[in-house]
Amino acid sequence: MKIKVAKFGGTSMADAQAITRSADIVKADPARRYVVVSAPGKRFSQDIKVTDLLYECYHKLEMDGNFDSSFEKIRERFMVIADELRPDLDMEACLDEVREGMYKYGSIEYFASRGEYLSGRIMAAHLGFAFVDASEVIVFTAGGEFDAASTRAKLKKKLSGVKYAVIPGFYGADESGLIHTFSRGGSDITGALIAEAINAELYENWTDVNGFLTADPRIVEHPAGIKELSYRELRELAYMGANVLHPESIFPVRAGGIPINIRNTFEPDNKGTMIVPEITDSRKGTITGVAGKKGYSIIYIEKSMMNSEIGFARKVLSVLEYYNIGFEHMPSGIDTLSIVVADSEIAGRESVLLDKIQKTVNPDHVDIKNGISLIATVGHGMSFKPGTAAKLCTALATAGVNIRMIDQGSSEMNIIVGVATEDYEKAVRAIYKEFE
Ligand code: ADP
Ligand code: ASP
Ligand code: MG
Fold it and tell me: pTM to 2 decimals?
């Protein structure tokens, strides 16, 4: 029988009503055998996600040696859900066990993981599925690195003996049982790993929007949906900030050639977005989507005749390597080189970095321009249409947005622009409108 893996995100697990909807979706198709859940997310815009409350508990413990007041908020959320859905499940006992574990193990990753653990317990009871703890099947090394080969083997072995199961997302454990987590939004990765290990027919990712949209709905009003997206387009958009899906969740499913279907728990009849190895639909538009992220800086270097100085870029990059700084883009001109880096990479080290670059390549000028946002305009359609970059630049100029950096990959399916962060939203809207 064909198997589907269904992952439900935070909004789909936010309260009893949402969980009931999610469970109904699972029950509607017997192929949905493995269910991955997130911790309860926001019920309304000012609400706090359970995972954030758990981080709050950890910081309270560090500061005051006690996290009781924050833990009460978590207890309250889970008790309300359990009372409504599963009064037979001894939720008080589960919560006490978690609270004890927090004092006993005390690591930030243990704290953060408990939202998924508890939400998995509730969902398993509600569906009448087995509960498979992620700590048994998602493997990390003692140093906290994810171990793909051991995970695949453990998942295969465990799930071959369990027909229907709920597995909490976001975390796993090392050999000694210590809990480790993926980065935020990591339940998407858990779902992808399970889909690959059992060679699922489909990985369904149930969220709160009608699939992947052509732009962030928090910036552009009612952006169009995307019916089909290639793995590569997804990777570019997700990496560049379209956080519907964790950018790292693409690798396991791509390896297995398993399509991902992003669906809306609150509009289950909508077909959402299919993410496939190669797109098959004939698209009308040039671009598939636009996404972006704030929080970048540009290291800007000027030196006459830089282009003919063999090894110039390598020497500059060796400075970044020395300080263990990763970079995003490196567009260059005849006498100029710009290196785009995340603010988090250079925080507190700007002056030593500038000094070292000055000493290493003796440029005419070097500085760091802060307050940059990156916007990616992505689509396979771009490679067949001349003038896409010109259209994009004109749209930004008309909107009064100054382009601080532009980079087009040689694949020609992606144009990245850097703009001042105060222009970010305006720029996204202008690009969206131009290609709508
Ligand atoms: P979940 O909790 O289900 O994993 P997330 O909050 O992680 O959901 O991701 C869904 C959210 O991603 C949407 O509610 C939306 O606000 C945001 N988002 C950002 N960019 C896009 C995009 N291009 N298409 C769809 N949603 C997007
Ligand atoms: N609950 C975790 C987070 O808020 C993981 C997830 O939702 O995927 O980041
Ligand atoms: Mg998510």
Answer: 0.92
